[in-house]
Records
---
Amino acid sequence: MVSIIIPNFNGRDLLRECLRALRTQSYENYEVIVVDNDSIDGSPEIVRKEFRWVTLLETERTGIARACNIGMRAAKGEVIVTMLNNDMTVDKDWLKHLVPELLPREVGVVGGKIYNSGTRVIQAAGNRVDWNSGACHQIGVGQQDVGQFDDVCEVDYLDVPTVRRDVLNAIGGVDEGYSFYYTDVDFCVRASEAGYKVLYVPSAVSWHPSKTTVGRATWRRYRSLQTDGMRFLIKHSPTQLIYYRICCRTISVMITLARFLFKRRIDLVSIQTATFLMSMLCLRNAMKSRNMHS
């Protein structure tokens, strides 16, 4: 059995479309678990009323990482989709293509190709990490799909990690120290560090709203991006490279600030500067995560 975990907070209409797509899966042996984080938009009600085949777990507002872990603890499957976004829709053969790729014991995590919603424009054909700065890069982003990313290959991380239970037991669940970003990155990197392959499977297709349609830049978003990014970089860097990589990350932020200034986006300059300084003030907590990881 495959267990699909969907964390949700006030995503009623998006969640409805996500569940409708999952209902059509050609792979028959699966369960869907929605972990609702105290939504007030009627999300739990539509799950109970329209999707009775879905397991609904209602929690206090815990955040995405803890919600995923709650779902995984309730999961019955030997294969677990750890964190499917509530605003994603999947192809009917999505699971059919993912599950066989997990059969080799050396493979620990798999994930598919993601398009911008309603298009064949690639949002991510797997992802890479810039280990100097901790920045994450989507492979193929913005390109029209003409088959250029149709080979199964190893990547640094996947946006929707699908994992075998034995691998999950070996590396543990999602790190709840992240506020929003880098949960998927950290999960996949821990699998790699444990000796497992992280595989991009292009035939497993899904759709997700492009970055331009998922809200505007906000203080909260940049704060999470900066503090989570710093935490990830320190947690997974060799001791002798920590300060070098912090310097590289600082330079990367400075380059981004210069671009914002050139575009006269003073609002983004202010937010980026303040949230980066906040991430530097959180270095002690980041170091604690490193100690716990080791």
---
Amino acid sequence: MSNLPRLHWTTLGEPTLGMEHRWASHWDYTLDSNKADPALPPKDAELWAISAGAVEPPPALVRVSGEVGAMPILLLRKPDAGPLSPESLLAWSELGSARWGEISEQPPLPGMRPSLQIEPPMTGGQALGVGFVIVSEAMKNVLAKAKAAAATKATVLLTGESGTGKEVVSKAIHRMSAEADGPFVAVHCGAIPENLIESELFGYAKGAFTDARKDTPGKFREAHEGTIFLDEVATMPMAAQVRLLRVLQEREVQPLGGGGAVKVDVRVIVATNQDLWKKVQEGSFREDLFYRLDVVPISLPPLRERREEIPALAQNFLIRKAREYNLYPKVLHPSVDARLCAQPWPGNVRQLENAIERSIVLAGSKPVLTREDFEFLMERVPEEEREAVASRERDGIDSSLPPPPIFVEPLPTNIGERFELPPDGLDLNQAVSEFEKNAILQALSVTRGNKKRAAELVGLKRTTFLEKMKRLEIQDDDPAPDAE
């Protein structure tokens, strides 16, 4: 029995040019030349090759393709075949996610089929490690698609409103991929002047234009064996779209000003906050390029549709910004959750991050951020929406806050001035113990159980804080070390 991977080649009656014999040392192959009734590939096939010389696939093949699941498809054309029309590309794309290739002496590479092993979903810590704060089902779906895309070099199209985290997702795909050690090159197409974008992306030869004093590789060659992220791709001018299409088709770049084409091995991720298909219909974006980009589409939901993630995102930004500015560690009072979750957030995650950053900077040495530190958010809410926002906040305060702590009233800050000795005296040790227990419970409530920050709030070292908890018989529901 052969140990070679299995390739099933549906020729649809077209010639194989004898390549099945040249590939015999790499593949255990089966041939099917039936055009009217093509056979399903064997279940153990690693790759399904299909001769795609016709204008469109026969209907029988389209029906069969729906039964092969995740099997990779390679569409083969003869080296001298002319270019396909956009209509033909669209017709062949009905077979599913497929690659294009030439019938040549170079055999297709094995090992393309996805693993059939069901991988467990990422834990919260693993997701955070690649830049995700995952709480909502919508973002769990985004992460699952990003993880699947990272296992291949398929082109990814990220869509969503500004500020939803498209660049974060692109970096996560890169970090989860086999090319994580390679370069990640981000290009914001909208920030580059129209007359410079081609030279910026594809490079240029010395003397190509007035200021071209030396050969410059361009962003695609800088991203070789890594990932290139093209943000705001909808703003790309038509001339650059033609060159981008060639890169996606041929996997090579042609520098401006002459010189030979240069092969590039790069994953392409593009992003836009516009409706690309609408731009195709308006004639401002190439239809054939759209189909090349829309291989793995991932849509990011706006923050207002995943409000359950806001507290976790806010806490993550709080920790990160405090470290970034080397500021005193701060915590969010639980009442802040309702205020943040009630906001419309037109700027999405980016606006939330900026709000947390502003509050941290203006709070100075204040250790706990309260609802009052986020009053400025209402200033940017349109007048007609403010009552709805206030109503959501009131509902959130009633439903989202944890049960009140054991203590009855807040601890006074001017203890010496307010204290009066009872006529019958008191047990000083017991009074001190009750005060300490009350203070520790309040600190734990405000910091949501984070003992390290609770200790900082009451001016103790963490070890001393834990000793007092033990002595005062305060239950430790989470003996694990606090996350930073």
